[in-house]
Amino acid sequence: MEDKYVIGIDFGTDSVRALVVNAVTGETAGTAVSEYPRWKSGLYCNAALSQFRQHPLDYTESMEASVKAALSGVPDKVRRSIKGIAVDTTGSTPVAVDRAGTPLALLPEFETNPNGMFILWKDHTANAEAEEINELAHRWETDYTQFVGGVYSSEWFWSKILRTLRIDERVREKAFSWVEHCDWISAELAGNTDPLSMKRSRCAAGHKALWHQDFDGLPSNAFFEELDPLLGGLRERLFEYTYTSDQSVGTIAPEWADRLGLPEDVVIGVGAFDAHMGAVGALAEPYALCKVIGTSTCDMLVAPNEEVGHLLIKGICGQVDGSIVPGMLGMEAGQSAFGDVYAWFAKLVIEPVKSLLGEEQAKVVADKLITHLAAEAALLPVSEKDLLAVDWLNGRRTPDANHTLKGALLGLNLATNGAAIFKALVEATAFGSKSIVERFKAEGVPVHEVIAIGGVSKKSPFVMQTLADVLNMPIKVAVSEQACALGAAMFASVASGIHQSLPQAQQAMSSGFDAVYHPRPDIVGIYDKLYDKYLKAGDFIEKEFLKESTFPLQIG
Ligand SMILES: Nc1ncnc2c1ncn2[C@@H]1O[C@H](COP(=O)(O)OP(=O)(O)O)[C@@H](O)[C@H]1O
Ligand SMILES: O=C(CO)[C@H](O)[C@H](O)COP(=O)(O)O
């Protein structure tokens, strides 16, 4: 087959990565990363309030920069052979748009208003609204949370919309509709951002917006009106149909072909969430748990509809037909903070250094700190009497979403040093992972193997070994540094007709696996005991320690 190329674009929390791939051989022709400038300087965010917003210009500018940089070294012949682009993004990361589908922050009167920007997945300002949605859904004639694990989260679409409409009159007046990041970028690239006709991702709609075939689309207008009259009528300005990512949204808009220096017939695929496309890029087979391990984790599982489609799996972030692989049931779970737990501890150490010795000296320490702590922690013996941590520093995503929960450290004494704390934090993140695996199993979904992708899986052998020991399962790490972008590229190759099906694209373009971490038999038993203590500590936090708190809890 003549060489044909595609581009996968992966919008992460901090940066966007572009990957130019030969769709026939899977070879990478070019790649580049670009950070979001406004986000990097902390604009529009307030961690103490758990408010995390991203400006649409951060996305478009960084996308342009990364695609151009990825293409800068490739021969002209390759550039002319690019046939398709697909994007993945974080989610639920919705934005209010006007009638034309323009995010409000792109209008002069909203350009600095955080409520007119994308509300990043990890923004937890809508805890109270999530609780209201749960309360109503559980007593409504149809429990609309049944396909999202029985708990609606403050990280998701409707919680964020409801909160924003309540608190910002100007946004309320101007917002015609709401769009997920993965849908808006794809629509923007294809030059049709009309909220009523843009193609919406099955993945985003099913996992975060309560869309399901059995509901004839989104929950009823009566449900939303009962929740709050402010939501009345919005359903009609959203969407009824959804699309899997093997479909196309259209051909690249001339403006974007020009900006990116691409042919005018490039096909744009339907977008999806990063972790979902990551599982595709990592070649996750049915019943392989694919853990995307970075700031947070997303734990993805694919299974044939006919085998598990009848189950209602409690406490996960959704089960959606075609959300990962078209034609299969896609399931999502995850942890709200994973690498972020280590980043928190590193920041705790670095902040005083910065104040006392200045930015430059602090940077020297910061660059080496996590690796140093991991090396020290790896030397410590593992015992069931060790310091214990609970990983809910950013709440708990699964099992059973609850973003008001807090983390903990138990067992400090005067000998406890930084390495011991770091070790306990790493173990806590691994225990959080184990509770997800246990939940899948308890709900009748077997987990046959574990695959890891994402920054932490590449950066930290210590974390990966601990995870294998705690899970008592081998973990395969995918070769690709950019499995999400690679998954997007695979989808682009199907949407643009290079490959006839996703499995065909995966076979041609997969990068395979390199490291495999095997559980150490002498440690596994100790971790089983520590895991029991972790469950008890979590129970105490949830049922006793936070019992008296009024809702919503103060974050920070
Ligand atoms: N050496 C390391 N060991 C463990 N975790 C690390 C290390 N270096 C960075 N991290 C963590 O990796 C996370 C970022 O993961 P990455 O996958 O690169 O980004 P993203 O989640 O934005 O896609 C951060 O939370 C950081 O704390
Ligand atoms: O929940 C998600 C997908 O369903 C988020 O997109 C994901 O957690 C973002 O994480 P990261 O920054 O590690 O890519």
Automatic annotation (TrEMBL):
Outline the extent of the Carbohydrate kinase FGGY C-terminal domain.
292-495
Identify a single GO molecular function assigned to this protein: ribulokinase activity
Positions in coiled-coil regions: none
Q: Which reaction does it catalyse?
A: L-ribulose + ATP = L-ribulose 5-phosphate + ADP + H(+); D-ribulose + ATP = D-ribulose 5-phosphate + ADP + H(+)
Instruction: Name the pathway.
Output: Carbohydrate degradation; L-arabinose degradation via L-ribulose; D-xylulose 5-phosphate from L-arabinose (bacterial route): step 2/3
Top-level EC class as recorded in UniProt: transferase
Residue stretches making up the Carbohydrate kinase FGGY N-terminal domain: 5-281
- State the family it belongs to: Belongs to the ribulokinase family.
In terms of NCBIfam families, this protein maps to: L-ribulokinase (TIGR01234), PRK04123.1 (NF003154)
Q: What protein am I looking at?
A: Ribulokinase
Which organism encodes this protein? Dyadobacter luteus
Specify the taxonomic lineage: Bacteria, Pseudomonadati, Bacteroidota, Cytophagia, Cytophagales
